[in-house]
Amino acid sequence: MSAVLDPHGHAAHGDHAHDEHHDHHAPTGWRRWVFATNHKDIGTLYLLFSFTMLMVGGVLALLIRAELFQPGLQLVNPELFNQFTTMHGLIMVFGAIMPAFVGFANWMIPLQVGASDMAFARMNNFSFWLLIPAALMLVGSFFMPGGAPAAGWTLYAPLTLQMGPSMDAGIFAMHIMGASSIMGSINIIVTILNMRAPGMTLMKMPMFCWTWLITAYLLIAVMPVLAGAITMTLTDRHFGTSFFNPAGGGDPVMYQHIFWFFGHPEVYIMILPAFGIISQVVPAFARKKLFGYASMVYATSSIAILSFIVWAHHMFTTGMPLTGQLFFMYATMLIAVPTAVKIFNWIATMWQGSMTFETPMLFAVGFIFVFTMGGFTGLILAVAPIDTQLQDTYYVVAHFHYVLVAGSLFAMFSGFYYWAPKWTGVMYNETRGKVHFWWSLISFNVTFFPMHFLGLAGMPRRYADYPMQFADFNAIASVGAFFFGFAQLYFFLFIVWPSMRGKGEKAAQKPWEGAEGLEWEVPSPAPFHTFENPPKLDATATRVIG
What's the rounded Cα separation, in Å, for the pair 94 and 175? Predict the structure, then answer.
């Protein structure tokens, strides 16, 4: 009988290899986390890191809303206010949303494709730990001479060329986070393409894996573009180049072109994994197969490809020629089509399903409702003459928060409630989950819906003060923002924390009746090592046979 090596290189003989593999010495204490190579532990680290950054970015948002509660300058001067808006954007995009989705990917992709782990376990560890110094540098920039960067999260020249030393720290931090994203993407692509269980063809993969595969390719394509833009900014600041400095023959508008060539695919990077999560949750609670699986795959791919040809719709007011405006206007309208295909497919999946509305489904339906509203305001902003009026007003703020907060964040909550029983081994409290949903949905709309009216009335964004006619809607938005912030604190203290400590009713192996997929074939909580021998799949690639 031949010897089988277990993951630690010890020979285990015959059939005992399989029996022993659940308890071979998961590392304990701090070493388990610092030297983590297990995809589940790294996924947990990513999720905790991103929630911490969500809280930091959220505090900055609340400081912004506190200042805007009434006209006049209450708490901070305009310079500090601009630092808050800049850092709120950078921290939320690079510190909260992106790492959170990587956390979901680390936890779920190996489980969903039947792989034993991610392809490059040590690189996985490295890509997480890179985020810590980057985050410290970003947040620490407030304490540098001259304060944090105050050029807006888009870091437009020539403002960036006039900032203090914190700008350099911000550039370095974004380089490091970009490197982390690229490594994470390589890992995800190789895991999905090379480590699927026998019998799981690409067109039998769960939608979450598809959306992340496409997102990972997008990340590899555009993170170097951002790196180029901020490196050119750095050389303009310190090495005498004039890429963006008009005094030396440079062009500040060129920065915008380069930035948005990264920035527009980036907004899809922040929403495609959310589409994947919703495509897992809706069929489970409608107890039906996902309607139009193949069309969902093609729609996701179309969104990714089209995202590269719409970047200048952020730049309608920079004086581009009419033909340019027309091209970007029509391209932007075109990208709404595959997005609409997805919305249609989710609704068709729910149609005549035997639906129940546990918390994951509530967040999924909430996501579809609010994301669709954000999509419509995006379509309005795609029309160049309208955008010229609304550019840089609160209408734009409302639009992208409907897409990103209600989009990315609500989908993450849906995914958390759906998969957390598998992660922790206990069921969350359903009543508390529903309270979190309704509290979040109502306070979110109270915060951001009035901003549409503020923008239509002409209130510019990133201003610390405003005329009296904007006072009422700003007061409403500020009150809503504080309620929304406290809802997320409630979520952590009363839902996440008890689950992490194992408090609650024990979760079944498959807690949701309609759920399908390999992740429900392992016990709850998922053991430290899973799928050491690749599972053999049935014809649908959702169940293990034999």
Answer: 11
Q: Identify the bridge partners of residue 506 per DSSP, sorted by sequence position.
A: 426
| Structure tokens given for 187 | 């890992």
Distance of CA 500 to CAs 42, 282, 410, 446, 449, Å? 15, 25, 20, 31, 34
**Distance, CA of 266 to CA of 157 (rounded, Å):** 20
Distance CA 362, CA 285 (A): 10
Q: Which residues are designated catalytic? A: 88, 117, 153, 180-181, 264, 266, 268, 279, 313-314, 339, 342, 461
If DSSP states are collapsed to H, E and C, what string results for 420-448? HHHHHCECCCHHHHHHHHHHHHHHHHHHH
CA 362 to chain centre: 19
Handedness of CA 516, 522, 525, 526 (dihedral sign): negative
Separation between Cα atoms, residue 43 and residue 391, nearest integer Å: 38
Q: Give the closest residue to 295 by CA, choosing from 225, 349, 245.
A: 349
DSSP code at position 38: S
Per-residue pLDDT tens digits of the chain, which is 546 residues long: 334 344 444 434 333 434 444 445 678 889 999 999 999 999 999 999 999 999 999 999 999 999 999 999 999 999 999 999 999 999 999 999 999 999 999 999 999 999 999 999 999 999 999 999 999 999 999 999 999 999 999 999 999 999 999 999 999 999 999 999 999 999 999 999 999 999 999 999 999 999 999 999 999 999 999 999 999 999 999 999 999 999 999 999 999 999 999 999 999 999 999 999 999 999 999 999 999 999 999 999 999 999 999 999 999 999 999 999 999 999 999 999 999 999 999 999 999 999 999 999 999 999 999 999 999 999 999 999 999 999 999 999 999 999 999 999 999 999 999 999 999 999 999 999 999 999 999 999 999 999 999 999 999 999 999 999 999 999 999 999 999 999 999 999 999 999 999 999 999 999 999 999 999 999 999 999 999 898 988 888 877 876
Q: What are phi and psi of 506, to 5 degrees?
A: -65, 135
Inter-CA distances, 57 with 11, 52, 102, 410, 496, Å: 49, 9, 18, 17, 19
Cα–Cα dist 330/325, whole Å: 9
The candidate with the shortest Cα–Cα distance to 335, out of 365, 364, 310, 363, is: 310
User: Which residues are registered as beta bridge partners of 393?
Assistant: 460
Q: Is 387 exposed, middle or buried (0-12, 13-18, 19+ CB in 10 A)?
A: buried
> Does residue 158 have a cis peptide bond before it, meaning omega lies within 30 degrees of 0?
yes
Domains and CATH numbers, the chain: 32-521 (1.20.210.10)
**Whole-number Å distance between alpha carbons of 130 and 173:** 9
- Counted residue by residue, the chain has a size of 546
